[in-house]
Automatic annotation (TrEMBL):
Its EC number is 1.17.1.8. Keywords: Amino-acid biosynthesis, Cytoplasm, Diaminopimelate biosynthesis, Lysine biosynthesis, NAD, NADP, Oxidoreductase. The keyword Nucleotide-binding does not apply. Homotetramer. It comes from Luteipulveratus halotolerans. This is 4-hydroxy-tetrahydrodipicolinate reductase. PANTHER family: 4-HYDROXY-TETRAHYDRODIPICOLINATE REDUCTASE 1, CHLOROPLASTIC-RELATED (PTHR20836:SF0), DIHYDRODIPICOLINATE REDUCTASE (PTHR20836). It catalyses: (S)-2,3,4,5-tetrahydrodipicolinate + NAD(+) + H2O = (2S,4S)-4-hydroxy-2,3,4,5-tetrahydrodipicolinate + NADH + H(+); (S)-2,3,4,5-tetrahydrodipicolinate + NADP(+) + H2O = (2S,4S)-4-hydroxy-2,3,4,5-tetrahydrodipicolinate + NADPH + H(+). GO terms for molecular function: 4-hydroxy-tetrahydrodipicolinate reductase; NAD binding; NADP binding; oxidoreductase activity, acting on CH or CH2 groups, NAD or NADP as acceptor. It is found in: Cytoplasm. GO terms for cellular component: cytoplasm.
């Protein structure tokens, strides 16, 4: 990439998108060359080298396919990237080996540290549950951060030889015990006035450990977004999780 990076934002008028546009505008080494929203023709993305994609799960795969086909790196904050969609994206990237795509379940540095700490703690505790809270306009549950946290915890538990999380519940007709994500109980709250919050609660005989992160304003995501923009070109192929750019 050149010294200055040309950036387009897809989903530019959304809450995250508008914040990302401002962050790119304010950065000395980035140029905002395109703002796109639903229904817009992405075309050549305004000549962007990197696209920041912040839309909705149903739109994201086609937007990223468009970027990859045109050799544009992508930083993706949209959730909904399940194993099937990731596999399809890997196939697309195989035809464009110089293109990098970052799928970031969370851009907040504190959230990435929370996930890393939770993964470290997971092998020491018999019990663990995840509780995430977001604003009620969020269309999917659980959050991408919660799903990613559960997957990291599950991997650590398997490596440590731990069995299933203990739970004697046999009757739960209304789903009070929440979802199971990779075997880890996950609960999603949707409350007006909140932005993005998560806690991971661990339990062992005679003790408890709670790891919590709170984003009170979307500005907390912007350092991570800008890090992704600056570094995605150094990482061809698919990267899931901004932590891989930060050495976590």
């Amino acid at each position: 990439m050149s010294e200055r990076i040309a950036v387009a934002v897809i989903g530019a008028s959304g809450r995250m998108g508008s914040q990302a546009c401002q962050a790119v505008d304010d950065a000395d080494d980035l140029d905002l060359v395109g703002r796109f929203d639903a229904g817009d023709d992405l075309g050549d993305l305004g000549g962007a080298q990197v696209a920041v994609e912040l839309t909705v799960p149903d739109a994201s795969p086609s937007n990223i396919a468009h970027c990859v086909e045109r050799g544009v790196h992508a930083v993706v904050g949209t959730t909904g990237w399940n194993d099937e969609r990731l596999a399809a994206l890997r196939d697309q990237l195989a035809a464009q080996p110089e293109v990098g795509v970052l799928i970031a379940p969370n851009f907040a540095i504190g959230a990435l540290l929370m996930m890393s700490f939770a993964q470290q703690a997971a092998r020491f505790y018999e019990s663990v549950e995840v509780v995430e809270t977001h604003h009620p306009d969020k269309v999917d549950a659980p959050s991408g951060t919660a799903a990613r946290t559960a997957a990291l915890i599950a991997d650590a538990r398997r490596e440590a030889g731990l069995g299933d999380v203990p739970d004697a519940t046999t009757s739960d007709p209304d789903g009070a015990r929440g979802a199971r994500v990779d075997g880890v109980p996950v609960h999603a709250l949707r409350l007006r006035g909140r932005v993005a919050h998560q806690e991971v609660a661990f339990g062992g005989v005679g003790e408890a450990l709670t790891i919590r992160h709170d984003s009170f304003d979307r500005v907390s995501f912007m350092p991570g977004v800008l890090t992704g923009v600056r570094r995605v070109g150094e990482h061809p192929g698919l990267t899931v999780g901004l932590e891989h750019f930060l050495g976590l």
